[in-house]
Specification:
alpha/beta; 4-stranded parallel β-sheet; Rossmann fold; 327 residues; 15% strand; disordered N terminus
């Protein structure tokens, strides 16, 4: 860098000597000083940019697993292996960089046209490698095997899906750094916070049970520490699984505990079909919420993906709680 400055200064000096005349010599010296200062300033700015002092692409990021991941100079090709990361990329205006996704990344509509690299739990390593990604964004522990194999091939692999509600802003910020969209990431985080504030309800919270599956598929639901339980609480409800013992973020809940919890309302994944089916399902048919017709469906994707559409989920839950409270 210094040698380059000296060459520029030398060239400038040679050109300056072309001027003749005693009256112009003093002006030449003054101009040379100004030029030297200007060139030095430009050189220093270039050095700072080269060292990462600018606001461009980050040199490395620390992912949600606490691992520092070096990034290539430019991130232009991304494989996203979870629906939430795909939706965050789209919201930040970086979907055009995505060259591959998991099979469940179906939102926004444009995501359906992107090549699929296997399903959420069965990543096709060969397809990912063939896509020549600069980075791969993953769901973390749930895709540990794929992460290890890709890392062994020297492909930067970043665990960036939130596992709890409080991590959602971290996930958005992380992805914002990866694609050089940090301002957009902060704006999205503020939008989510605004929805949280507007959805707060006064009074005693209604007790809620969320049905992810039932019957022969198990009574799977969200538990303490899950982002779904947290969204229910933000919207003004109280999940009956919050006091479960033993507990886990995702639980196969017993029918006995469900009946004893006596929820005021039941939220049911939309994909499970007509909520009236619970009226003839053992255990569920004995619950007050089912008998009183307080079973409400909610879109599976917005409530099960820790990404931008948690805003829609919180609003939907809050609206259901308001409706139930008026009945």
């Amino acid at each position: 860098m210094a040698a380059g400055i000296r060459r520029v200064l030398a060239l400038s000096s040679e050109r300056a000597l072309l001027f003749r005349g005693e009256s112009e010599e003093r002006n030449m010296k003054q101009n040379m000083k100004r030029l030297s200062v200007l060139l030095l300033a430009v050189a220093l700015m270039a050095m700072l940019a080269a060292c990462g002092g600018g606001s461009g692409q980050a040199a490395a990021v620390t992912d949600l697993a606490g691992t520092e991941i070096p990034l290539p100079q430019k991130v232009e090709r991304i494989v996203s292996l979870s629906p939430s990361t795909t939706e965050i990329l789209a919201e930040l205006g970086a979907l055009d960089k995505v060259v591959g996704t998991d099979a469940y990344s179906n939102y926004p509509e444009e995501a359906n046209a992107i090549d699929k690299m296997g399903d959420y739990n069965g990543v096709n390593i060969e397809l990912v490698v063939a896509a020549e990604p600069d980075v791969v964004l993953t769901a973390g522990k749930l895709q540990a095997d794929a992460m290890e194999k890709l890392s062994e091939l020297n492909i930067p692999v970043i665990a960036c899906e939130a596992t709890e509600y409080a991590q959602i802003p971290d996930s958005i910020r992380l992805i914002g750094k990866v694609v050089d969209k940090e301002k957009e990431a902060e704006a999205l985080i503020q939008d989510i916070k605004a929805v949280e504030e507007e959805s707060a309800r006064d009074g005693e919270p209604l007790k809620v049970y969320y049905v992810m599956s039932y019957g022969e598929y198990g009574n799977w639901t969200s538990g303490p520490g899950s982002f779904i339980n947290e969204m229910i609480k933000i919207a003004g409800g109280y999940p009956i699984t919050e006091d479960a013992n033993p507990s886990a973020p995702w639980m196969d809940y017993s029918v006995e505990a469900m009946v004893a919890g006596d929820p005021d309302i039941i939220l049911m994944a939309e994909s499970l079909g007509d909520p009236s089916v619970l009226s003839s399902t053992p255990g569920y048919q004995d619950m007050r919420a089912v008998q009183e017709g307080r079973v409400y469906t909610i879109n599976d994707d917005i409530i099960s993906r820790p990404g931008p559409r948690v805003q829609e989920a919180i609003r939907a839950i809050a609206s259901i709680l308001d409706q139930a409270g008026e009945e």
